[in-house]
Write a structure and sequence with these properties.
Distance between the termini: 34 Å
Number of strands: 7
Shape: globular
Radius of gyration: 18 Å
Low-confidence stretches: none
Structural class: alpha/beta
Strand order of the largest sheet: 1-2-6-7
Oligomer: single chain
Number of helices: 8
Length: about 190
């Protein structure tokens, strides 16, 4: 999960862990949660909760140009793509869509990340040059989550998958392999 999607993504994963699905005799399931410079939303929290109920200063409300409840980003190159190669940033900015204003003010439902089924199966990639979700905010969310995370700090901005795709994909691959080597509840798989 990345950025704002940490909130709705963790809600969507609720009840779908591999262990929970197996207990119900259902196939498949989520083996772990990976957050990349993402919002770790507590139940009932809004995206604007950390900023006193206001949108971040870099969010532009499009009430005049687009009276449809949409928001966009002021200076996306600096906020989202500050360490992304210019040609990639240009492409990304051209394809950047608006977001519904209501999403920032809607309380988050119960997240999956605090379920015991994900003990040992939570990973967070912090971006230390992130201008959208600063490093201090990422650390505060990790601390207040009250659960353990496998954390790695990347020397990247908000879009690590665009600025350091190989590095991030290698880390992600290691996390998935680690998740695959664990039993439900985070215990190592017994070797016969």
């Amino acid at each position: 999960m990345h950025s704002y999607s940490g909130g709705p993504g963790a809600m969507a994963a609720k009840g779908l862990s591999l262990a929970e699905r197996r207990a119900k005799g259902q196939p498949g399931g989520i083996i772990g949660l990976i957050f990349v410079s993402a919002w770790i939303a507590q139940e009932g929290e809004k995206f604007t909760s950390g900023s006193g109920g206001r949108l971040p200063q870099w969010v532009v409300e499009n009430a005049i140009s687009k009276p449809n409840g949409q928001t966009s980003v002021r200076n996306p190159k600096e906020i989202f793509y500050n360490d992304v190669p210019v040609s990639v940033a240009k492409w990304a900015i051209q394809n950047l869509g608006d977001e519904a204003r209501a999403a920032a003010f809607t309380p988050s439902g119960p997240p999956a990340w605090n379920d015991i089924y994900y003990n040992g199966r939570r990973a967070y990639a912090k971006s230390n040059k992130d201008n959208a979700l600063p490093l201090w905010a990422q650390q505060a969310m990790l601390t207040t989550s009250g659960v353990d995370w496998d954390v790695e700090v990347f020397a990247t901005g908000h879009m690590a998958f665009l600025s350091q795709p190989k590095l991030l994909s290698q880390w992600t691959d290691r996390q998935v392999k680690r998740f695959q080597g664990l039993e439900a509840g985070g215990a190592p798989v017994a070797v016969a």
